[in-house]
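Box S1 | Example of a co-folding query
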Amino acid sequence: MKAVKYKIGRDDLAKEYLKLLDVEDLKAKVDGYNLSLDIEDVLIGDITTLVKCRNAYLEHTELKKRCVKDFDYDKHSGAIAEFFIKYVDTSTCHYCDMAYINTYIDSDDNNRRVFELDHYIPRSECPLLALSLFNLVPSCQYCNQRIKHSKKSALNDEELIACCPTYENYHFEEDVQILPIPMDINALNYNPDTSKQLKHFRVRFFGPDIYQSHIKELKLEDRYQYHLCEALRMKDKCDRYTKGKIDELSKLLDLPSYTLRDNILGPVTIRKEDALGIEFDAEYKRTMAKFRKDTYNIYYPEDK
Ligand SMILES: [Zn+2]
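Box S1 (continued) | Returned holo structure for zinc ion
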């Protein structure tokens, strides 16, 4: 759903990450498996490399016990969580965008986190990748457990790479649209009571086939259905406040059109004039921003 964003470059990030681990010790262990794997590929390889490592491991699952012991995530989980708090930009769940995942400082000045770290390629399937930096995705509890419940990912190699939020060429956000779709003729009749319109719409994720198994695995369409009202509210505002009306109001109130549009429709585009400054893209840091934005783009075309 949303790409994982790091606060420093990937090379520097990887260097810092390796400092948390006893790389020489892990290298000796991996060399002992005789899988011809480079320890750096295992620990800081990107998702395409990790899929290759997994496939090499899957031909030698007799190593499972050794891998579970050698790549002990629980032993390192505290330090890894601290690392993510420091270097990863968190706001909403990278899989669903429905829940906040954030950090805060408590009254004793300790860094706290409101997120879990999901093993994208499950530990139960490939314990060799339990400590792999780009196999870790900050997520909400529900998405983390949903994936943990399935011992093995249902995705093929190509899908696994395309759907991974840490992948450098991750395009889910651009390629997929989340939209409320009218299911019958009543959906098209204007009803001032938006709540009565809910049953006439279904939420659908439109996009290339490569993402569909992942969308199904996370039950995203079903989970978004509960939040349909977010999109219908946006649609209702788009219907009421057309571009022409906003231009009229803008002249009357002597305010720029985009300011009025943002105030009425919510900040649906990245605004340089945001009240919290250019660094704080308010909408992006709010849950279901993509759902509202996709709805806006369909129901509020520029020439309306
Ligand atoms: Zn989630």
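The longest helix spans residues 73-87. Strands lie at 5-6, 88-89, 103-105, 111-113, 116-119, 136-139, 177-182, 201-206.
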